C-alpha cells in the first residue's frame, strides 16, 4: 500500500535532527509517564520509535483514505441544514479514520488523553495530511487550538475540554467579523457577564474555519466603552450549550471541504479563558502563532503534491516523440519546484524545533518547577528564534506553494486547466495559504524587526559555522558573500532612520533573510544527512537565492527616500 510518510525519506531525516534529543528529554520530564501509561516511552529511542510508528499510521490513512476522498469532498462540499453544518460524506469517513487511529489531541499531555507529542512530529503529520487533502487539514489541524486552552485555561477547563478533543471533537477559533479582519482590535462581538458569573455572547463572526465545531475559542469585547484591543477577552463556547447558529457557508475558490462559516451568537453561554482584557494582546497572539506554523505546514504539503503531480505528468506526457521531462524548459521548472519545496520544509522543521524547546520550558514553569538561569536564557533564546522564524516560514512557504501550484498547472498545459487532473484542485486550494492567518504582507510586518535588530544576521552567522561537506563548500563560500550584501543592505536601511523607508524596503529585506536562512539550512541538512537529494536541492536553491539577494541588494543600494513618491497611488 502507498504511504505518504514512508515514501518521503526527507521526513525521517528531519525527525532525526540532533535537537530532537533535547526536545524529547524536556517534553518527557525523565520519562516518568512510563510508570502511569503503557503507551508512554521509556527513553529517547522509545519515544522516537513512537513518533515513527504514529507517523506511519498518518501516512497510511492519508494515502489510502483521505487522498482518494479528496476529489469527492471537493465536488460535494459541506452544506447547511437547520443552521448546522453537514460535512461532505467522505469528510465523515476521514474524521472517523483519524479518530479511530487516535490522531486527535496529539500534542496534549497523556493525563488528558493525548499522546504528549512534541510540536515537530505533530507538524510533520499536518504536512502529510495537507498533501492528502488541503481542506481536510483545516478540520484535523484545528485541534492545535487546544494548545491555547491548555496554556491559558484553568485546570477545570482543561479537564473538561481537552479529553473531548483527544477523543475526536473538533475546534475552531472565532476571531474575524464583517468589519474586523486583519484589524482584530476592531472586534465588537459583545460579551456580557451574568450575575452568576457566566458570560453571554451576542453578535456576528465571519470567515470562521470549521465554524460549526464542537468547541470554539472566541474573541469578544468584554469591557464596556472600549474600542481597542485592551477591551477584548478570550472565551470558550461549547456547542452543547446552544446559542450559535450557522447563517451560511462561504462559496469559496478552494479548500471546499473545509466549511468557512458566518455565525450568529444569540445570548450564547461561554466561559472566560484566562484573564479579562488579554484576549487579543496575549492569547490571540499565541493562538495565531500556532495557526501560522500550521499554515506553513499546510503550504509545504501543497508544494509536495503540486510537485509530485507535475513530476508524474512530465514523465508520462509524450510530445515530439519523447516525454516532456526531457525538455530543459520542463526539467528546469521541476528542479526549481523541488528546491523551493525542500527549502520550505527545512525552515518549517527548524521553526517547529525552536517552538518545541521554548514551549517545553514554559510547560515546566506552568507545572510549578522553577527554571535556573541557564534554562531561562535557553527559553528566551528559542522563543526569540521561534518568533523570528514563524512569520518567515508562513510568508515564504505560502508564496512558494502558490508558485509551485501555478507551475504544476503550467507543466500539465491545457490538461491542467481541466478538473480531470488533481493539479486544478491543488491550484485553487493553494491560493488561500498566503492570505489567511495573516497575509504575506502582515508576515513581513512581523518579521522586519528581526531584520533591523539583527536576529536573522545572527542566525546566518551561526549556520555559517556548521560543518559543510566538501561538495557544498563552494555553495557555502557563495552564501558568505551574499550575507555580506544582505548586511550592507540592512545597514543602509537602518542608517536612514526613516520608518516609511524601512517599511518600503521590508519585503525585500525579509525575502533576502529568508533566502539566506533557507539556503544555509539546505547546506547543513544535506551535510548532516549525507543526502544526495538534499545536496542537489541545496545547489539549485542557492542559485535562486543568489539571484534574489543580488537583485534586492542592488535595488536598495541605488534607491533614495525621495523615490518612494514614485510608487504612491492617488
Describe the fold and architecture:
The chain has 570 residues and is of the alpha+beta class. Helices cover 58% and strands 11% of the residues. It is built from 17 helices and eleven strands. It has helices at residues 9-15, 19-28, 44-76, 89-100, 119-132, 134-141, 145-152, 155-166, 279-316, 328-366, 373-412, 422-430, 440-452, 455-463, 473-496, 499-529, 532-557, and strands spanning 79-81, 84-86, 171-174, 190-193, 199-209, 215-221, 232-238, 244-249, 260-273, 318-319, 322-323. Strands 3, 4, 5, 6, 7, 8 and 9 form a seven-stranded mixed β-sheet that branches. Strands 1-2 form a two-stranded antiparallel ribbon. It has a two-stranded antiparallel ribbon with strand order 10-11. A hairpin with a 5-residue loop joins β4 and β5. α14 packs parallel to α16. The longest helix is centred in the last third of the chain and has 40 residues, at 373-412. The protein is globular, with a radius of gyration of 24 Å.
Amino acid at each position: 500500500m502507498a504511504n505518504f510518510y514512508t515514501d518521503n525519506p526527507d521526513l525521517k531525516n528531519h525527525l532525526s535532527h540532533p535537537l530532537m534529543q533535547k526536545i524529547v528529554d524536556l517534553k518527557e520530564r525523565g520519562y516518568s509517564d512510563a510508570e502511569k501509561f503503557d503507551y508512554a516511552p521509556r527513553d529517547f529511542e522509545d519515544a522516537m520509535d513512537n513518533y515513527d510508528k504514529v507517523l506511519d499510521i498518518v501516512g497510511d490513512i492519508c494515502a489510502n483514505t483521505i487522498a482518494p476522498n479528496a476529489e469527492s469532498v471537493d465536488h460535494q462540499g459541506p452544506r447547511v441544514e437547520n443552521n448546522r453544518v453537514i460535512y461532505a460524506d467522505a469528510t465523515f469517513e476521514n474524521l472517523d479514520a483519524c479518530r479511530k487511529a487516535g490522531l486527535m489531541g496529539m500534542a496534549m499531555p497523556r493525563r488528558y488523553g493525548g499522546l504528549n507529542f512534541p510540536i515537530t512530529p505533530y507538524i510533520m503529520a499536518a504536512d502529510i495530511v495537507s498533501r492528502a487533502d488541503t481542506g481536510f487539514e483545516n478540520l484535523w489541524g484545528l485541534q492545535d487550538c487546544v494548545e491555547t486552552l491548555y496554556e491559558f485555561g484553568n485546570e477545570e477547563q482543561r479537564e473538561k475540554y481537552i479529553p473531548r478533543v483527544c477523543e475526536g471533537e473538533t475546534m475552531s477559533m472565532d476571531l474575524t467579523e464583517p468589519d474586523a479582519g486583519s484589524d482584530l482590535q476592531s472586534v465588537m462581538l459583545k460579551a456580557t457577564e451574568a450575575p452568576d458569573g457566566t458570560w453571554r455572547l451576542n453578535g456576528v463572526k465571519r470567515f470562521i474555519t470549521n465554524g460549526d465545531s464542537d468547541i470554539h475559542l472566541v474573541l469578544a469585547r468584554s469591557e464596556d466603552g472600549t474600542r481597542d484591543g485592551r477591551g477584548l477577552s478570550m472565551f470558550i463556547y461549547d456547542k452543547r450549550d446552544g446559542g450559535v447558529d450557522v447563517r451560511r457557508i462561504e462559496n469559496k475558490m478552494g479548500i471546499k471541504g473545509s466549511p468557512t462559516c458566518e455565525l450568529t451568537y444569540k445570548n450564547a453561554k461561554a466561559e472566560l479563558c484566562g484573564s479579562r482584557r488579554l484576549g487579543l494582546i496575549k492569547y490571540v497572539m499565541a493562538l495565531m502563532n500556532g495557526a501560522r506554523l500550521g499554515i506553513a505546514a499546510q503550504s509545504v504539503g501543497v508544494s509536495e503534491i503540486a510537485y509530485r503531480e507535475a513530476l508524474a505528468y512530465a514523465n508520462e506526457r509524450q510530445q515530439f516523440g519523447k516525454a516532456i521531462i526531457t525538455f530543459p524548459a520542463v526539467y528546469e521548472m521541476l528542479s526549481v519546484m523541488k528546491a523551493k519545496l525542500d527549502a520550505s520544509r527545512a525552515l518549517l522543521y527548524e521553526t517547529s524545533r525552536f517552538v518545541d524547546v521554548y514551549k517545553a520550558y514554559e510547560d515546566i514553569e506552568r507545572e510549578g518547577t522553577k527554571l535556573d538561569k541557564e534554562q531561562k536564557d535557553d527559553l528566551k533564546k528559542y522563543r526569540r528564534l521561534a518568533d523570528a522564524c514563524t512569520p518567515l516560514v508562513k510568508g515564504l512557504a505560502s508564496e512558494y506553494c502558490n508558485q509551485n501550484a501555478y507551475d504544476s498547472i503550467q507543466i500539465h498545459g491545457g490538461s491542467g486547466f481541466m478538473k480531470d487532473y488533481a493539479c486544478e484542485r491543488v491550484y485553487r486550494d493553494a491560493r488561500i495559504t498566503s492570505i489567511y492567518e495573516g497575509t504575506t504582507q502582515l508576515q513581513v510586518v512581523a518579521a522586519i524587526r528581526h531584520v533591523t535588530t539583527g536576529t536573522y544576521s545572527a542566525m546566518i552567522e551561526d549556520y555559517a559555522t556548521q560543518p559543510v561537506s566538501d561538495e557544498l563548500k563552494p555553495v557555502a563560500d557563495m552564501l558568505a558573500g551574499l550575507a555580506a550584501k544582505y548586511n550592507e543592505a540592512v545597514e543602509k536601511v537602518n542608517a536612514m532612520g526613516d520608518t516609511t523607508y524601512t517599511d518600503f524596503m521590508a519585503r525585500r529585506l525579509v525575502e533576502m533573510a529568508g533566502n539566506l536562512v533557507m539556503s544555509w539550512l539546505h547546506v547543513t541538512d544535506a551535510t548532516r544527512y549525507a543526502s544526495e537529494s538534499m545536496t542537489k536541492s541545496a545547489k539549485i536553491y542557492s542559485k535562486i537565492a543568489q539571484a534574489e539577494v543580488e537583485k534586492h541588494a542592488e535595488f536598495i543600494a541605488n534607491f533614495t527616500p525621495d523615490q518612494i513618491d514614485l510608487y504612491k497611488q492617488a
